[in-house]
Amino acid sequence: MKPNKEKVKVHYERITEVIEQHKTAPQAALIAHLNPIIVGWANYYSTVVSKETYSELDNKVYKKLRSWGKRRHPNKSGHWVASKYWQTIGENNWVFATRQEGKNPMRLQAHSDVEITRHVKVKGEVSPYDGDLIYWSTRMGKNPEVPKKVATLLKIQKGKCAHCGLYFTEESVMEIDHIIPKSKGGKSEYKNLQLLH
User: Fold this and answer.
1) What stretches of 144-190 show up as alpha helix (H) in DSSP?
2) Cα separation of 113 and 153, whole Å?
């Protein structure tokens, strides 16, 4: 169900309430409290909401955080406040994040960071028991006849090979590959695994 204006308003009010409750808290504490609220709401509506709604919410949150920063440093310029609390991370400008030298900064997740994925209806006459393991693993991320890691990677990769981009078929030989080899410190975490032909 798509969020109406009232649900968007309630969500934004919840974010505002958390920011108000953390007037004097460190930036990391504020981020730690806001991230689950933002990511949870954005994930819940990721199949029905539009990018415009996410962008509008991100703009409102930015303005609220800018006021939060100015209130903490009333004698500093807007430029100083911006350079203290916002930074460029990768290709993203204006990321509300901590400055931790030599470590990954703790960053506020944006609504627009959550990918919008439209719900796809089940094909007409198909069933989980018809033997189409690839279709059901890709769709659900699980299938009793496919190893869990393979099924999860099929869902993450949307049924495509990470190397060639072609769809897997029932006849495909699938292999789990480490992006960074274990011999070079790569871990067996999903972010370091890919499914190949």
Assistant:
1) 148-156
2) 20
